[in-house]
Amino acid sequence: MFLSRTLNSLYAATIDRSKFRETAQRILVFALPFFYWGRERQWWGFVFVAFGLVTRAWGAGYLKKDQSMAAGGPYLFVRHPLYLGSCLLALGLIITLDHWIAAVVLGGVTFLTYYHTIRHEEKNLRARFGTPYVNYCRQVGPLWPKLGGMKKLGRSLEKDGASFSIKQYLKNKEYECLMGVAFVFVILYAGAVR
């Protein structure tokens, strides 16, 4: 409880919450592999990492920050595909490290940061876009798909699958996530028992 209150206070006090989230998670993700140097790895966790990277990349190719409400591609079945991708990345790293402390620490930090981030972001989006965003929230789950969203996704892919923009992906700097994950897995591979 104390840790949760402390993190909540630190998070609420930051001026730029996204920078706090990014900094805290990067420090944790880059430091964790060193604490598990010389241990066996569960490499099947990389499956979740790959899905996380694809989900984040797909979402970044549709997201036009501060310009319009994203509602195409992955946004048809989850409201926050970038955060879903990050959760999958965290799950993949937890599986790969295969230790309960890593699960508690990384899982806890991921849950706390995204729980607060999603609440804060959705409050801002409701204020900014009003009724269209409220209706969107009724149809689409935050991090898990609703059945209606999956049906829309299939129709969207048939109709406008080419709407993904590599230019938007690059503008959103999503390649930084890919490079970070590659770096972490190089550390994990170097420190693994062979």
The top level CATH class name: Mainly Alpha
Structural class: mainly alpha
* Rg of Cα set: 18 Å
Taking pLDDT < 50 over at least 5 consecutive residues as the criterion, the unreliable ranges are none
Task: Name the overall outline.
Answer: globular
Count of β-strands: 0
* Overall pLDDT score: 82
Helix content: over 70%
Description:
There is one protein chain. The protein has 194 residues and is mostly helical. The chain has a single domain (33-190), classed as Four Helix Bundle (Hemerythrin (Met), subunit A) (Up-down Bundle). The chain has helices at residues 2-13, 17-35, 46-60, 81-97, 100-129, 131-139, 147-160, 166-171, 175-190. Helix 2 packs antiparallel against helix 5 (100-129) and helix 4 runs antiparallel to helix 5 (100-129). It starts with a helix and ends with a helix. The mean pLDDT is 82.
